[in-house]
Design brief:
Distance between the termini: 63 Å
Number of strands: 0
Order of helices and strands: HHHHHHHHHHH
Helix content: over 70%
Strand content: under 5%
Number of helices: 11
Oligomer: single chain
Length: 304
Amino acid sequence: MGQSLENFKETIASLSKLIAHDVTKISLMLGSPPYPDIETLKSLFSPMIPRLCLLQNTLEQTPKVGGRTLYKQYYQGVCSIVESVEEFCKQVIAFQSYPRSEGMKLLRTAQALENCDQIVNIPLKPAEIVRKKIQDETDLIRDAFEELCSVESARSDGELSDASDDGDEFEQPIPSLSSRHREILPYCLALVKVGLGMLKKLSQAIKRSGRSEKLEEVEELDKIGEMCSLVTSTVDDFVIAAEPPLSYEALKEAASELSKKYLEVLNIVPACHFSTEDDENWVQILRTAVDHNFKKIKENRCVA
C-alpha cells in the first residue's frame, strides 16, 4: 500500500529543510575566514547529494489520490530545488576564482533556500491546489484583459505615433485604431471578461463543495484545472488577434476558438460533483454572454 498524502508531504518537507540547512551551513562557512579547504567542502556536500536523490525518488512515489495537478506542483518544486542547488554548487566551486566579497555576493543570490521554503507551502488537498491553479490562471487572464483595455484607451481614433518625435527614425509607428476597430473592442473585452467571471465562479464552487475522497472526484478537479489552463492560452491568442493592426479573419477565428473553450468548461460544470443548482444559474448567464459577444464580433466586419 502506498504512502498517504500526509506522509508524502512530511517526507518532502523534511528533506527540503535538511537541504536548506546544508546550503545555509556552507554559505556561513564561506562568509568569513578561515575558509574551508576542498576536502572540507566535499564533506559538507556529501550529505546533500543523497538527500536530493531521495527527494526525487519520493516525488516518483506521489500518491495517486493526490491527482495530476498536485504531482505537477511538486514536480516543479523539486526541479526548482535541484536546479538551484546545482547553481549554488557551481558558485561554490567558482568561489576561489573571485575576490572574497564578490564571491559571497554571488552565493547570497542563490535561490535554493527560497525554493526549499516554497515547496513546503504547496497545498496538500487536491481541491486547494486546483483552486490555487485557477487563481494563477485568473491572474494571467486579468493581465490580458488589462492589456486589451490599454489598447482601447491609449490610442485615439485615426491617430498615428510619430517616430521622429522621439528622435529615432528607425522606430516603427504604433498602429492606430480605426473607428470600426473601436466599435468591436467592447465585445472583445466582454468576451475576455467571461473568462474572469467563469474562473471566479469555479473557484468559489470548488471551495464550497469540492471533495477529494474518491479518485473520480480528484480526476474531475484535475480536468477542470487543465481546461482552465487551455482557456488562458486561448485568451492570450485572442487578445493578440484583437490588437492593431487588425485582421478580421484572424480575430473571428480566435474568437471562435475562445468561445469553444469557454463552452467546453461551462458544459461540464453542471455534471461535476461540486456543482449545485445555484451554479447552473451562472453557467447559463455566461453561456449567453459567450454567444452574444461572439455573435457581435462575427457581425461587425471591422477593418484595420
